[in-house]
Specification:
The protein has about 230 residues and is an alpha+beta fold. Helix content is about 40%, strand content about 20%. The chain has one domain: Gcn5-related N-acetyltransferase (GNAT) (Aminopeptidase, 3-Layer(aba) Sandwich), CATH 3.40.630. It contains 7 helices and 6 strands, in the order αβαααβββαβαβα. The chain has a 6-stranded mixed beta sheet, with helices on both faces. The longest helix is centred in the last third of the chain and has 31 residues. The protein is globular and about 45 Å long.
Length: about 230
């Protein structure tokens, strides 16, 4: 990961958004956006400028956007961040990937327009990704990043991911690839059984178990699709 790549996804402590800056809205990209050559071009340009290299091309961008269409077993989608009608960032989220276990969702491709860095866009995107995973029944979120001891940008990356975002990586802090996980809070409809009696609690436990079974099956399906190049 280059310096520009790491800087692209980090909030900049010294850059604070003006108090009157419009809020960030995050939605899931769809085929409608994929059909817009202007939007696709803006998305590719934004991601590649944020990463400081050719991270994605237009065909991949269209594929990621189309994947967000409503359908059964929708897996990886691309979250799009907008501010005052302008594209300012993106982030993907997947309910199941081959390198995470059952019940562990994943997010990645976090990129923020250089002009909008340090203004809460990255945090809004991660929150949207985690909310989707949690709503789908995932109990854990996973992400990975490259770390280099002593590198200022790496240290900021480590401090943000494993600080305010509460991701847990390896206990050591040696240079290398850090695989991080975060326990997601229970869904709102499963937090409190007070006043509902043991039947409500039992029903929610059964629903939770069923959801975990579905995620387990989907995980194996994801591995099969990945092996045959469909994922």
């Amino acid at each position: 990961m280059s310096d520009n790549e790491r800087a692209a996804i980090l909030p900049t402590p010294t850059r604070l958004p003006p108090p009157d800056r419009p809020p960030v809205t995050v939605s899931i990209g769809t085929s409608e956006l994929a059909r817009s050559s202007v939007f696709v071009s803006e998305l590719v340009s934004m991601v590649n400028r944020a990463y400081g290299k050719g991270r994605i091309g237009e065909e991949e961008a269209r594929h990621r956007l189309r994947a967000g269409d409503e359908r059964p077993h929708r897996n990886r989608v691309l979250h799009i961040a907008m501010r005052d009608g302008q594209l300012v960032g993106c982030c993907s989220s997947s309910l199941f990937v081959p390198w995470c276990g059952p019940g562990c969702g994943h997010w990645g491709l976090l990129a923020v327009d250089p002009a909008a860095q340090g203004s809460g866009v990255a945090a809004a995107l991660v929150h949207a990704a985690e909310l989707r995973l949690r709503s789908a029944g995932c109990s854990t979120a996973g992400m990975e990043f490259s770390y280099h001891v002593g590198d200022p940008l790496s240290e900021r990356l480590l401090a943000w991911y494993e600080g305010p975002l509460h991701y847990v990586g390896p206990s050591h802090q040696r240079s290398g690839f850090r695989i991080c996980r975060k326990r997601l809070p229970a869904r709102d409809d499963a937090k409190d059984t007070k006043g509902g009696g043991w039947l409500v609690a039992a029903g929610r436990l059964g629903a939770s178990s069923a959801a975990q079974i579905v995620l387990f099956v989907r995980w194996f399906v994801a591995i099969w699709l990945f092996m045959f190049g469909v994922y």
